[in-house]
Amino acid sequence: MRFSRQMKTVEEALQELLARLQKLDEEQVELGEAYGRILAHDVIATCDMPPFDRSPLDGFAVKAADTVHAAVDQPVYLRVVETVAAGQVPRIPVDPGCATRIMTGAMMPAGADAVIMFEQTENPGVHSEVVGIKRALRPGENLSRRGEEIAQGTVVAHAGERVNAGTIAVLATFGYSQVSVIRKPRVGLLSTGIELVAVDEPLAPGKIRNSNTAMLAALITEAGGIPVLFPVLPDELAEAKQKMTGYVREVDLLISSGGVSVGDYDVIASLADEPEVTLLFNRIAMRPGSPTTGLLMSGKPVLALSGNPGACFVGYELFARPALQCLAGKKQVSLEPIKAQLGSPYEKPCPHPRYLRGRLLQKDGVLIAQPDFNDKAGNLGTLKNSECLIVIPAGGRGKQAGELVDVIVHAQPSWREEV
Amino acid sequence: MRFSRQMKTVEEALQELLARLQKLDEEQVELGEAYGRILAHDVIATCDMPPFDRSPLDGFAVKAADTVHAAVDQPVYLRVVETVAAGQVPRIPVDPGCATRIMTGAMMPAGADAVIMFEQTENPGVHSEVVGIKRALRPGENLSRRGEEIAQGTVVAHAGERVNAGTIAVLATFGYSQVSVIRKPRVGLLSTGIELVAVDEPLAPGKIRNSNTAMLAALITEAGGIPVLFPVLPDELAEAKQKMTGYVREVDLLISSGGVSVGDYDVIASLADEPEVTLLFNRIAMRPGSPTTGLLMSGKPVLALSGNPGACFVGYELFARPALQCLAGKKQVSLEPIKAQLGSPYEKPCPHPRYLRGRLLQKDGVLIAQPDFNDKAGNLGTLKNSECLIVIPAGGRGKQAGELVDVIVHAQPSWREEV
Question: Coiled-coil region(s) at which residues (chains A, B) (predicted)?
Fold first, then answer.
């Protein structure tokens, strides 16, 4: 199989992988732990919001009819019958000729149908038994009606949504001190290759430090997963197969890096030929990372990324990120490219689409995608600057600066200006 | 002071606050804990990268001069003297007429100056003592030179940078198992107002649940801070002052919500008049959130946000987010607006700039900022959809659809299509 692999497009390979993944179970968490999690169910408003008619400002609740003739130089004087703070329940109705001193968020007294702010009354800094109203009000003016923003029973957040700070505000308001969320996916991580030494080990000749596992663990954590770290895989096929068969049982998805190409010791590539293993894909029409491999072992999906850091990163963004969204129950997972103008020409010929790391800039409201030219598969110094993958279609001509290209965004753009 | 406040612009108020904040101390963390933290120092490459001349692919290391006459139909045959896996040190130099079978990432043998990939040799799947080279190579072709990406001593990440997965890869590669990062800021949180009940309490008439504290705690965690939750502040001035004087000692920044306006029980507003308290600002030319207040208590900065959830959110984004960046040691903190086309007309007259929550969309490479029209200060149902603040300048005419507006982005755009 090693030199006669069947080629698939990125989209075909991704669908092969996603078809093997299922939404995970749900679990209950405290509201304070819900940030970043995925909602398992729609969230319903448990009451109207606001829950009662209330004042949106500090002032006086009045009958609008009493203020018809009020003006700056001709105030209408009303008798103040009560002061109501937010959280208090008014006791005295507002009769004609009367007003209630009322604070922001306080419940409206019966009989009042409008609120005038302190600043539009006489001597706003002085407490008095009479207030001079300096402006006419319309009925309903400065009044927040019960349920005007959200009616009880409304769906205020949907299953599959990621909980952010605004979601937390909604959940808190409606009394959800516990939240049903999708369980965090357990993602196994392993590397292959005897050239790898641990981060805290000294470099020996011919060796490099294992940077992929640390990088992938960070990416998985960022995506809401739990990285489960396994030892470096042995090069020997039978032993590797036995280890991996054990590992997949412990996780929802196993991600490896290295060993996917045509080298003599590329153990993942050998694994694809084993009878107990189902091959999903091992040759993708893309640069970098064309030997990125998908397998099923004991029914569990294995995503085998290139060992080259640059290709490993791109493979993660194209396959692992959507896979984690799929496990989290997101509907219709796809790469969803947006359009941007290419910031610099990219003319390197390539028989397959290139997925270039880059940055998203903007100039006068126009999106500009600036490729990173430090794009050799083995390089890693500029992975930290990547905000998107810029898709350069197959063919010898590439794309000129200013042409629209597809861009798959994976990080908050920095909108940096430098090109 | 309550009804005679001095107005400042958002930028003036922000600078008043930032001038009181200092970069926090550093601490050492394990690499696995460094994600999301801010680097305290520049990070230096501890070796060349690659650390040795190596092969970027699986194939044969050769002398290019030996391949000058090679062609698909006229292979040049070389004697295979050794196989070198990644991680091994070659023992045998490549003499004229010889080749070394070499794997991706493996150290180049002495004497070789180019690598041909398996696929460009005869019978690539077969191991043999002789290899047929089917293409002429240039000296240096398919060879990654020691230090070609990064020279030892290069600064590979800068003090003040946020550590992302790519930074982790660089740190791992250069052996940084411990990283110096800026200490996480401790941010105190408190609410004011007797109308507030806890999330797990039942609603009584006139009461609402405290959603701001939970929301702000999530925002602070997201920004890399540690939220420190204090009880709801009493309305009584002397007691409130005493409590807050204690609270500020425990934190780097204290954030409150509510009590900043002109209401009778607005205790933060009263605090601004106390002799031990230094007022930085308490009236800002902005909607919503104009009474957003900055104070110094015992030399510690206090940011007092509006109690209205919408105004609280906007105040956090305009003032607290930059304040946290400042504590983290980010240089030249500012709001850094970008430009986008306004997606829908916004014509509500306003004497001050409006900061509208909204979404960032794109169409054919053009950025579109779509305002959220659920923008009453007291509303909270759509805070979760906010990706940016759209700045509508002061004045009665607003902005028309398609006009360029300033946009302050605070979340990863979803690039949703719906308008």
Answer: 7-34
Among B296, B327, B358, the domain-final residue is B327
Same domain? A301 vs A244: yes
Q: State the pLDDT at residue A1.
A: 52
The answer to whether B332 faces chain A, any CB pair under 8 Å, is no
Question: Does one domain contain both A33 and A171?
Answer: yes
**Domain co-membership, A278 together with A199:** yes
Q: Which of A374, A380, A415 sits opposite B173 (nearest CB)?
A: A380
Same domain, A103 and A229: no
B195 and B304 in a single domain? The answer is yes
Would you call B120 helix, strand, or coil by DSSP?
Answer: helix
* Residue range A143-164, pLDDT digits in tens: 999 999 999 999 999 999 999 9
Q: What is the ipTM of this complex?
A: 0.95
Residue A192 lies in a domain: yes
Query: Which residue type does A239 have?
Result: E
CB atoms within 10 A of CB B122: 14
A372 in contact with chain B, both atoms CB, cutoff 8 A = no
Q: Which of A37, A325, A387, A334 is nearest to B412 (CA)?
A: A387
CA B321 – CA B335 distance, rounded (Å): 9
Closest listed residue to residue B302, CA positions, set B238, B233, B376 = B233
A214 contact residues in B (CB cutoff 8 A)? 31-32, 168-169, 171-172
Examine the domain organization and report whether A209 and A65 are in the same domain. no
Is residue B72 within 8 A of residue B54, CB to CB? The reply is: no
- B349 or B402, higher pLDDT: B402
Q: B342 in contact with A at a CB cutoff of 8 Å?
A: no
CA-CA distance, A201 to B285, in Å (whole number)?
A: 57
- Domain-located, residue B204: yes
Q: Is the pLDDT of residue B332 over 80?
A: no
Contact B264 A103 (CB under 8 A): yes
**Domain region containing A172:** 27-45+158-182
From CA A167, how far away is CA A156, in angstroms rounded?
9
Residue A257 lies in a domain: yes
- Taking the CB of residue A407, how many other CB atoms lie within 10 A of it? 26
Q: Give the mean pLDDT of chain B.
A: 95
Give chain B's domain count: 4
B418 pLDDT higher than 70 = no
For A274, counting Cβ atoms within 10 Å of its Cβ (0-12 exposed, 13-18 middle, 19+ buried), the class is middle
- Stated length of chain B: 419
